[in-house]
């Protein structure tokens, strides 16, 4: 049984997080709990490790997926920022350790689903935490072609919105709130012209999943506002502050239908390949 880690630039309900969970289920694993690290006060925490924008929606994920949610407030900061990581009191990685330690005490779990694609910084730290806890990280998206991944996510009915932008060519006023399907061709253009990572692995953008085959209910945003964090002339940074949301039932959804749907949507090449797992 696998606890899904719903946190980070390891993701707050983002597209990578949800698609990796779909891969886990397609490979025969069971998601038994969700875990999230949240900022203490402000919407966007300056962190090398965690995405916190959009955290207002996290409580809805537990109900949408009908799973228990474990949360912890981020108390540490990015103290150890080199290539390697050694245990350091006060580092934000130790918040991840404490959160997963709690989950392991409360649930029967063997591993963690992680939506990381490219970041060795994250990989090293997740490996370190999992090794200490005797958990196995599962990262099905690791080092995959981002163009292929984005296309698969859209075709697999992951309905995700862009909720943060921080790259040349991305404008908070124009692009926040757009869906992946609406942005796919434009992101590919930015990739060819400026080297933007199509899946946002360079921090170019972040997403929030409102619906996917894993959800028994879908999230609906009733009101939001654009917040400009940095009005840089070339690469302004802005995010979508979620003011009001609610859940809507999805008609005739059962767990069996969810599993069947995922099995049909996840590409055969991924299901048939050996599971790529971070080395411990």
From TrEMBL:
UniProt keywords (A-Z) are: ATP-binding, Ligase, Nucleotide-binding
Q: Which InterPro entries match?
A: Diphthami_syn_dom, DPH6/MJ0570, Rossmann-like_a/b/a_fold
Top EC category = ligase
Q: Where is the Diphthamide synthase domain?
A: 12-233
Q: Which Pfam families match?
A: Diphthami_syn_2
Reaction(s) this enzyme catalyzes, per UniProt: diphthine-[translation elongation factor 2] + NH4(+) + ATP = diphthamide-[translation elongation factor 2] + AMP + diphosphate + H(+)
Quote the pathway field: Protein modification; peptidyl-diphthamide biosynthesis
The record's GO molecular-function terms, alphabetically, read:
ATP binding; diphthine-ammonia ligase activity
State any GO BP term from the record. protein histidyl modification to diphthamide
Might you give the EC number(s) for this enzyme?
6.3.1.14
List membrane-spanning regions: none
Q: Which NCBIfam families match?
A: MJ0570_dom
Family, according to the entry, reads as follows: Belongs to the Diphthine--ammonia ligase family.
Know the name of this protein?
Answer: Diphthine--ammonia ligase
Give the organism the record lists: Erpetoichthys calabaricus (Rope fish)
Gene transcribed to yield this protein: DPH6
């Amino acid at each position: 049984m696998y606890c899904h880690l719903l946190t980070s630039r390891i993701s707050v309900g983002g597209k990578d997080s949800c698609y990796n969970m779909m891969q886990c289920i397609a490979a025969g694993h069971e998601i038994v709990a969700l875990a999230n690290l949240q900022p203490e006060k402000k919407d966007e925490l300056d962190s090398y490790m965690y995405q916190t924008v959009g955290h207002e929606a996290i409580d809805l994920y537990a109900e949408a997926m009908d799973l228990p949610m474990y949360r912890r407030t981020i108390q540490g900061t990015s103290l150890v920022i080199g290539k390697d990581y050694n245990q350091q009191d006060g580092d934000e990685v130790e918040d991840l350790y404490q959160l997963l330690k709690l989950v392991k005490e409360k649930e029967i779990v063997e591993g963690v689903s992680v939506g990381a694609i490219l970041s060795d910084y994250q990989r090293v730290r997740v490996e370190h935490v999992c090794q200490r806890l005797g958990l196995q990280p599962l990262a099905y998206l690791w080092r995959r072609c981002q163009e292929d991944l984005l296309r698969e996510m859209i075709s697999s009915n992951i309905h995700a919105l862009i909720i943060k932008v921080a790259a040349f060519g991305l404008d908070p006023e124009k692009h926040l709130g757009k869906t992946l399907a609406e942005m796919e061709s434009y992101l590919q253009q930015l990739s060819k012209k400026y080297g933007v990572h199509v899946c946002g692995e360079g921090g170019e953008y972040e997403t929030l999943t409102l619906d996917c085959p894993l959800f028994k209910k879908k999230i609906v945003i009733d009101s939001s506002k654009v917040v400009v964090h940095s009005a840089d002339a070339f690469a302004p940074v802005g995010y979508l502050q979620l003011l009001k949301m609610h859940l809507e039932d999805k008609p005739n959804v059962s767990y069996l239908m969810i599993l069947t749907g995922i099995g049909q949507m996840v590409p055969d090449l991924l299901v048939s390949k050996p599971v790529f797992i971070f080395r411990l």
